[in-house]
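fyi for ur records
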Amino acid sequence: MFNIFKKKPSNIKYDKENIPNFKYHKDPLNTGAFIENKDGKKCSCCNMISKYIYLEPYYSKKRISCLCPDCISNGEAHRKFNMEFQDFESCETVSDKSIIEEVCYRTPGYCSWQQENWLSCCDDLCEFIGCLSWDKIKELKIEKEIIEAIIKNETFIAIGRPIEELIDAINDEIHDLCVFQCLHCKKYKVDINLS
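which gave:
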């Protein structure tokens, strides 16, 4: 039996197939910052077809359909659309303003339940690891380090609930646990977003 309505696989010819290295967001495919471009959309900035595209979050008065990784990495999307991928005010303080500019202008952002915060340590912004479930944290074998980070987190302290309840809420996707790692001392930090 033939299905005449079945969509034929497309043979998209990509102009770009690689993702550049992002110092503060090293695995943007795994975190979901970039998705595969299955429809052959052209980058709103360079008008080329990239194998991977970025949809959100971004802050700009201009509406875009998607961006390629290169236009984020080289700052062209920021220059062309006066676009930010992270809110300046939601980055923790570091002494070198160019570090915050790199994250805000040339690094893919991430989506969470509330305002995205970019954490710092050792006078540098941290690498974003992802918004992780407790099962993923166990898979990465970093439970002890994450529990230590949670106990120091202001939101967790303000909630005043046992850590087991927070872990259950994370697994039930009631709260987001956004995990960062210091590029220098390698300690983990967390941002807890309540639903």
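Confidence is low (pLDDT under 50) at residues 1-9. thats all i got for now
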